[in-house]
Amino acid sequence: MKVEQISIFIENKSGRLAEVARVLGEKGVNIRALSLADTSDFGILRLLVDNTDVAQKTLKENGFTVNKTEVVAVEVPDDPGGLFNILQVLDEAEVNVEYMYAFVERNAGNAVIIFRFDEVDNAIAVLNGKGVSILSGEKLYSL
Amino acid sequence: MIWNDEFETLPREALESLQTKRLQQVAERVYATVPFYKQQFDKAGVKPEKIKSLDDLRRLPFTLKQDMRDNYPYGLFAKPLDQIVRIHASSGTTGKPTVVGYTKRDIDNWTELMARSFTAAGANRGDILHNAYGYGLFTGGLGAHYGAEKIGASVIPMSGGNTKKQLMIMQDFGSTVLTCTPSYSLYLAEAAAEEGLDIRKFKLRIGILGAEPWSEKLRNEIEEKVGIKAIDIYGLSEILGPGVGIECIEAQSGLHIWEDHFIPEIIDPISGESLPDGEQGELVITTITKEGIPMIRYRTRDITRIIAEPCICGRTHRRLERMCGRSDDMLIIRGVNVYPSQIESVLMDIEGVEPHYMLIVDREGTLDTLEVQVEVNEQTFSDEIKVLQGLSRRIEKEIKDLLGISCRIRLVEPKTIARSEGKAQRVIDNRPKE
After folding, report:
1. Which of A 37-66 lie inside 8 A of B, CB atoms?
2. Which stretches of chain A score pLDDT less than 50?
3. CATH number reported for the structural domain that contains residue B157 in this entry
4. Is the pLDDT score of B207 beyond 80?
5. Within a domain: B434
6. Is residue B301 located within the same domain as residue B346?
7. Is the ipTM of this complex over 0.95?
8. Could you tell me if B201 lies within 8 Å of chain A, comparing CB atoms?
9. Domain match, B56 and B139 both
10. Do A41 and B378 touch (CB under 8 A)?
11. What is the nearest CA distance from B412 to chain A, expressed in angstroms?
12. What is the DSSP string of chain A?
């Protein structure tokens, strides 16, 4: 169960991030989660949105370089040690995490952790094997 | 196909004896009619009658672009203005433009050389020739126009700019041959894609591209993206305009220079010494038929070498290797000579990297710095920082391997580097002027 994420190349220039937000806002695309990785020259903005296709198309039309990637959304109880349990599972199975970010669900009291893996299918198999709750795209976008 | 069999395949010996005769004539003519040349010859201590062979050419002094500026506008003309039927001028980005004048016979010769060039490039009657070189003071538009009419092609005098209209005309009129700068041909392909058009599906089959230095890699890219055979044409207004040299479609390797009208030499740009065929240096051209404004040993600033080996197309006129840059464009960065075309060739070698780049040269303290701006596109973009940094490092390393200087790569958003509709601007030099 993979979730589609879009990534956007952003030059380290004032106003670029705002431009992404403006373009998506005007198209009625809602951002569910985001993470920004930055270097001195550029950043990569990763977004989970409620409508990936519209977001990708709109951003492209506005001159942005956009990629779609598959990530895995894992739900854990929002308690101390919640993250550790998941990471331990992955570590024991020698699954490498490229990057991750997290947010907290509004009502259910759970945390959602977004993982980008090199070997996505293998990672999902490992998580499933340990009974970890993986969210589908539909579920995630509608949270 | 060869336009003028007799002259284009003249045996070397006959060609050289024709050159010698014409050289003697032009030397006498300029000595008698242009005070500047008389003064220069006298200063060098050489009389026109001393020119007995082609080797004696070396005894004549060079002519520089600055000499044209110093004699602005008509000082170097060898004919009175009542015999001049056309005047062109260079863009003159620094100071006054350089001005050239053509007699009726000069225009006829130019037309003949452009007809030879177009024919060598594979164009012929029946072609619809889309001429996107600028019409006006720039020689490109009219020079190509006359030659194209001469071969019987249907010329569309588009001139530069207005890219959307260019695409519409190209598609609707069924243009088969495109003449413009190499960078503009790529821009047209990009602009077409933005309009939802695939330029490769147009009827274009040949591009005759010049007026700026370009690399073999860029040629491959143009051939693929525009869907044409890309032929290199060489010229400069001081000598003639377009049509001084052309690649033949048979070999696409080196530009034949029309030696019954020009004598090419290669010199060391620093010492001014003549270099043998095959060695790289600055191209120097003497015009031996031009009447309006003959040029004696004009330093073109273009860097190339002469290929003396016979060509498979059967023409006996020697070839110039694709221009590697201009000695004017040459940047000296930390003491190393750098041509923008060298950096271009590195970029084009890397899969997916755009041919649009900008070099920013600056100085920090006493040290020169070079920043290369490269556009990220969907092919090179990744959602992982390490992949993009790997790309930067790879470009840095390959530039260092080739040129021996380190630089900084800045990845920029797509289409943020200005596209040119004429000559591409590749360098911004922010170093304080001495």
Report:
1. 37, 39, 41-42, 44, 46, 63-66
2. none
3. 3.40.50.12780
4. yes
5. no
6. no
7. no
8. no
9. yes
10. no
11. 6
12. --EEEEEEEEESSTTHHHHHHHHHHHTTPPEEEEEEEE-SSEEEEEEEES-HHHHHHHHHHTT--EEEEEEEEEEEESSTTHHHHHHHHHHHTTPPEEEEEEEE-SSS-EEEEEEEESSHHHHHHHHHHTT-EEE-HHHHHT-
